[in-house]
Every structure is written in structure tokens, then in C-alpha cells.
Input
Amino acid sequence: MYIDELYKLYLENPSVETDTRKIKQGDIFFALKGPNFNGNHYAQAAIDAGASWSIVDESTGVANNKIIHVDDCLQTLQQLAKKHREQFNIPFIAITGSNGKTTTKELIHAVLSSTFKTYTTTGNLNNHIGVPLTILKIKKDAAFAVIEMGANHMKEIAGYCTYAMPTHGLITNCGKAHLEGFGSEENIKKAKGELFDYLREYNGNAFVFWDYDYLRGMSNGISNIITYGTTDEVQYAGQVKNHSELLEVTLLKGANIKEIRTQMVGCYNLPNVLAAVAVGKTFNIPDENIKSSLENYLPSNSRSQLIEKDSNKIILDAYNANPSSMKVAIENFAMMHGEKKVLMLGGMMELGKDSIAEHDKLVSQINQNKWQQVVLVGNDFKNLPENFIHFNNVSEAKTWLSKQGFKNTQILIKGSRSMQMEKVLE
Output
């Protein structure tokens, strides 16, 4: 079936699903395949559950005129997303980076949606399936679309751009994440830079955090660059007001806003806040809307959260971790006011051959400050100082924490997603 014909069916039933357990009446089901599943086996089940059509790329052994055969379900899904994207003449803002892209996406969405109908990526559906699904959820009333793009190998961002077709782009940073897939920090910059490559080729617009020299260089040749950072040479400038638990930002330039009191932990969120200010001002969002949106944004899902429990203040930033984000999280925690501080850190995944070395560097950094307790969880932590506590898994760490009876203590909990460090609080 040609995409034009499929798109007509989509316009009649503009809802796409890839999981038969979530099928709603009228959905179009795409039978995607993965290492542990094959959606083709559930084509009829999707119809039985209420799907209007099932799109398959293998023989199902079922005779049903609601089952449509294509060469490749995933490619068809992406082509359908591109066809839908082509119907819009609105700003499509793509966001990628090693750290902070989901928070930046949420902040930008909060600012834009305060004034205009804005669609964005749900959660972290930022991969080869999530990006097209996000695009296909955009309706005719859209004024803006904000698309998050994750990547763990080369040419992935470039692929997303072919069907998301961003008009604007933002790279939060390029740190040590997914080294196993990228191979080197230089390759990480090239991979994230594929977004800027697309903007350069198609006369797009880039929001650039000017404090990072490498982002300046990566943005060379882009026709329209909007700058933000901490110095006077940028269009939108700000700085951290103090090192309290919750980030407070003083704006220095670009908006008639004196300060923004966020509900997020961490001075490392300063660039994310300034990015949202830059985007908001670029698209004429009123200053008061920008301020209120950023101050009312409440982090969730174990990202930059401050939890007060039993007189303790717990920083829960356990959604993900890599050497770059661990470094700034520990630095921020060390600068915060307080005498009784406990680190509970889980291992960092997808570092490949560099994993042990990166965990050793993390231990060396931890040793530069005094802590009441240091608890490390995971098998890649080796050769630890005697005063550090090590557990193989989160369950052991949870049991340890429950027995400590901490009072008036600050606790930082962070680790890679697969470590599920948030479970120490359950």
C-alpha cells in the first residue's frame, strides 16, 4: 500500500498504536518487531480489540481485509509520520544531548503551552519508534511541536530529522553517555551534531548554549543562531543565584524577569532554564508566562526531585546517569549548604570497555570531599576506600538505609535507569 493511501486511512482514524494491550476503538495497529516480540502474531488480536486496521509485514495466516501488508512496518510508520509532518507549517523544535534533554523539553513545552497549543514527546519516547509516534499524535490545532531525540549510535539523529524535519534545534550538551555505542566522546559530538547538520543544510535555526566552546563550533554555518548562557555576549543570560536545595536563577539579559525560583534541584539545570527562556522570548511568550511556567514546573519521574522525609532532604535524580551527569550532580551536592550528607550512587551503564575506568574516576571525585556516608551499588565499582560501603544490588542498599535512622540529613540518590536506585526509598 502506498503512503498516500495509508495516510487517507490515518486521517479517518488518526490514532496509532503498537501495543495490542493499549488498543482503543479505531486505532491503527502497527505490527512492529523486536528481539523478544513480533507484532505480526497479534494482528487479528488488535482487530478483535477494536483496531480499525492492522499493518503487518509478515504473513499472518489470517484472512481479514482489515489486515494490510507492507514491506517493512517500522519504515512505513516513519514514512507515515513524515507525510503527516509535511502537512504542518509550524515550528518543529528538536532537542537532543547527552544530559538534560528531557528536562529541557519539559521546560520548553511548559513555556510554549502557556500561550499556544503545543505538542511534545510523552515521557522519554525519543527513539526510532517514539519519534514517529509523537509526530502522529500532533493535531491540526498545533502551533508548536517539541520533539525529543535520543541516540546511542551514529546516524540515528540524522534519521529522525528526515521525517521530523525540524525548523529549530537545540543540543543541551555532549557528555560521556552511551560510550559503548558511540565509541568515543568525539563520536558523541558528531552524532548529536547531526541535528545541527540538518539545520545547516535546510536553513534552520539553532539555540546554542554559548558557554560551551564545542557547541559554538558545532553551530558554525547555521544561518540563524539564538544564543543563551552566563556571559554578556549572549542574547539571553542568567546565573545561579545561590546554592540552596532548589535552583534559583537570576536573569541578566534578554527578558524583563529578575529571577526565577524553580522547583528543581541542581545548578546543572541552569542551561535548561535559560534554554526555555530563549525559546519563549524567540516566540514572543509574555515574560510573566515564562516566569510562572518555569516556577510552577514540578519535576517527576526521579529527575531533579527534592523529597522531604523524616526530617531528611533527599535529592532523587535516579532516572539516569553517566560520567558527565554524575560529576555535576556530585559537585552540586558538595556546594549545597549542610553538614550531614550521604551519597547513594548506582552504577553507570553502557560505558563498554571504559566502564571500570570511569567508575574509578567517579570514586576519585567522591574522595575529594567529606561525606557522612558513601554507598555505591553495582559490580563496576572496584578498589574502594575502606570507609565506602558497597552493595551488589539495590535491595541490599534499601535494607541498609532502612536501618540507619538518619535525621536532618541530606541524601543524594543517583544511578543509571537499570539500577533503579529510587527503590531504596520504597
